[in-house]
Amino acid sequence: MPAPAKVIDASALAALLFGEPQAEQVVDRLGDSTLIAPTLLAFEMASVCLQKLRRYPSQRDSVLAAHAISQQMGIKAVTVDFDNVLSLAEETSLTVYDASYLWLARTLDVELVTLDAALAKQARRRNPHP
């Protein structure tokens, strides 16, 4: 039986890669899932990496190594339907970025793994995964 698919957002992936306090929670939720994300995840992770480089210049090598891991994780990048994402963002008061993750999870009918409270709340409204 294939591993279940889950959509992962940048907040969850960043916690995992950069050893943030909620990393263990993310690991527990992911299990052995196949990971999927909108194509924008790569841009968001590069942005997180840049923030970490600026904040912790002495940790440059480990920050860049963590970022490299994100590109080797085999996360399936999916192009979203921007018209539908825009409508969903408007309906939920989420950013277009966050609505992209939500739209993808709803479209695929899979769990969204996020540490963003507002996004998680919207995900539970129509898809009550734990």
Describe the protein's architecture and organization.
By secondary structure, the chain is an alpha/beta fold. It has a single domain (5-126), classed as 5'-nuclease (Rossmann fold, 3-Layer(aba) Sandwich), CATH 3.40.50. It has seven helices and four strands. The protein has helices spanning 10-17, 23-30, 40-55, 60-72, 82-92, 96-108, 117-126, and strands at residues 5-8, 34-38, 76-78, 111-113. A four-stranded parallel beta sheet has the order 3-2-1-4, sandwiched between helices. Helix 1 packs across helix 2 (23-30), helix 5 packs across helix 6 and helix 6 (96-108) packs parallel to helix 7 (117-126). The two termini are 21 Å apart. The model has no long low-confidence stretch (mean pLDDT 93).
The CATH architecture assignment turns out to be 3-Layer(aba) Sandwich
The SSE string, one letter per element, is EHHEHHEHHEH
Q: Spell out the CATH superfamily.
A: 5'-nuclease
Q: Residue-averaged pLDDT, rounded?
A: 93
Globally, the shape reads globular
CATH topology label: Rossmann fold
Query: Segments where pLDDT lies below 50 for 5+ residues?
Result: none
Helicity level: 55-70%
Total count of strands = 4
CATH class annotation:
Alpha Beta
Helical segment count = 7
Radius of gyration (CA) equals 15 Å
Structural class: alpha/beta
Please summarize the sheet with the most strands. 4 strands, parallel
Distance between the termini: 21 Å
